[in-house]
Automatic annotation (TrEMBL):
<dbReference type="InterPro" id="IPR035892">
    <property type="entry name" value="C2_domain_sf"/>
</dbReference>
<dbReference type="Pfam" id="PF09279">
    <property type="entry name" value="EF-hand_like"/>
</dbReference>
<dbReference type="GO" id="GO:0004435">
    <property type="term" value="F:phosphatidylinositol-4,5-bisphosphate phospholipase C activity"/>
</dbReference>
<dbReference type="Pfam" id="PF00388">
    <property type="entry name" value="PI-PLC-X"/>
</dbReference>
<dbReference type="GO" id="GO:0051209">
    <property type="term" value="P:release of sequestered calcium ion into cytosol"/>
</dbReference>
<dbReference type="Pfam" id="PF00387">
    <property type="entry name" value="PI-PLC-Y"/>
</dbReference>
<protein>
    <recommendedName>
        <fullName>Phosphoinositide phospholipase C</fullName>
        <ecNumber>3.1.4.11</ecNumber>
    </recommendedName>
</protein>
<dbReference type="InterPro" id="IPR015359">
    <property type="entry name" value="PLC_EF-hand-like"/>
</dbReference>
<keyword id="KW-0378">Hydrolase</keyword>
<dbReference type="InterPro" id="IPR001192">
    <property type="entry name" value="PI-PLC_fam"/>
</dbReference>
<feature type="domain" description="PI-PLC Y-box">
    <location>
        <begin position="321"/>
        <end position="374"/>
    </location>
</feature>
<dbReference type="Pfam" id="PF00168">
    <property type="entry name" value="C2"/>
</dbReference>
<feature type="domain" description="C2">
    <location>
        <begin position="378"/>
        <end position="508"/>
    </location>
</feature>
<dbReference type="InterPro" id="IPR000909">
    <property type="entry name" value="PLipase_C_PInositol-sp_X_dom"/>
</dbReference>
<dbReference type="GO" id="GO:0005886">
    <property type="term" value="C:plasma membrane"/>
</dbReference>
<dbReference type="GO" id="GO:0016042">
    <property type="term" value="P:lipid catabolic process"/>
</dbReference>
<dbReference type="GO" id="GO:0048015">
    <property type="term" value="P:phosphatidylinositol-mediated signaling"/>
</dbReference>
Amino acid sequence: MKESFKVCFCCVRSFKVKTSEPPQEIKTLFEDYSGDGRMSVDEMLRFVIQVQGEKHADSNYVKDIFHRLKHHGVFHPRGIHLEGFYRYLLSDFNSPLPPSGEVWQDMNQPLSHYFLYTGHNSYLTGNQLNSRSSTGPIVKALRSGVRVIELDLWPNSSGTEAEVRHGGTLTSREDLQKCLNAVKENAFEVSEYPVVLTLEDHLPPDLQKKVAKMVSKTFGGTLFRCTDEYKERFPSPEALKNKILISTKPPKEYLQTQVSQSATTDESVKAKKVADAEELIQEEDEETVAIEYRDLISIHAGNRKGGLKNCLNGDPNRVTTRFDSSNYDPLVGWIHGAQMVAFNMQSHGRFLWMMQGMFKANGGCGYVKKPDVLLSNGLGCESFDPSSKSLQIKTVLKVKIYNGEGWNLDFPQDYFDRYSPPDFYAKASIGIAGIPLDTTSYRTETDTDEWFPVWDKEFVFPLRVPELALLYITVKDYDSNTQNDFAGQTCLPLSEIRPGIRAVRLHDRAGEVLKHARLLVRFVLEPR
């Protein structure tokens, strides 16, 4: 089979097109586990247990696999041929992550013991300067598993009502009631664990009263109120199922005013002024904030005195947040225990992919329990230091990328190269920011002029803090004269990866899964 590319009106370039076929190692495995060119139920069961590490599997589990393969036209009553075995390995039901979406972590610890899937400026459809405000991004975020929604509240032009907008910019405004309704109607569609609604409040007391009435009426019995009985120990996500918590954060312009009034250029002095201003706001709340509004608030957000480092190294039983208007490496916050690392979901890039990858864990419920290393002190009562040179290797991860397929079905013929098939390569990285000993990346060779690239390359990652590790893989089309073209990405939490040979589906820049593009990858985890 040939594929032709028209260079000009009189010249055509033709390329021989390969089909996706099993790598040699897969052929060898099939031969080892089958007889007479077919793999029976019992033989497949032995493979699934011994190679895929699925100890729970039984004959019914394998029969279900065979049943699904009927749709591919590669099933035979006496067993599956090599092509059927290869289709199983590349199928959606052979994911590197648990397929059930089951919440398996202990959800009965205080809320502060968990990372939360956190959005920032959740109502914006695009950039923070002149994009449109809408309920659409709120709905999309909640249906993607996000558990923290942020709204900026300002008085309208007449000062009679509160509205949602990004103050001081050209962004449009949205009706507050519509935003509250969007939260109410979508909060628990994909996860029953609590939603935190963060209000950045720029309102006078009379409008705070109106907002309090709107919030109470909209959410009714689903609204959690933090009474005295919760002062000593904040409830767990399990206890707060199907509840909405209200959080507030100090208005940015108030904090900026405190800094601008100071003539100093010393950053440490400025940081102290911001911290003191935040503290003063909470003290003044008792006198200036409408009591109806104050009584709704379960979480007071804001950086703790001393800045981010002290905030993150502080009391693990205190709910803390870290907000920023631009996306940055979320692992910087996570490795220090930050509970809410706020992200603009409308932005794209590697840091957003890492955020999306992190919260694929624990059934995608939007809550991931912090590892024990962040919740307890060491033998000498010292806090966890992610930059320590003395951390020992706990796990070795081996990642072998065999090949890939599906781009020819997801993209037009000339999407990557105008006059030839693509030149794909894959890059595999472990991202653990702040722990240089674990941070590394590799890339495959480039497979030239191939829609079905074959790499057959293994990478080895020795890990000292595997509990916080994320494996992210990107695929690009190599171009010698221009920037390499993006061809897909995925990010996987190491804590969830199933060993064995798996079909790794790729996603676009926004994190949406591509319909066909995928990689065949083998994962081996070796504890030390």
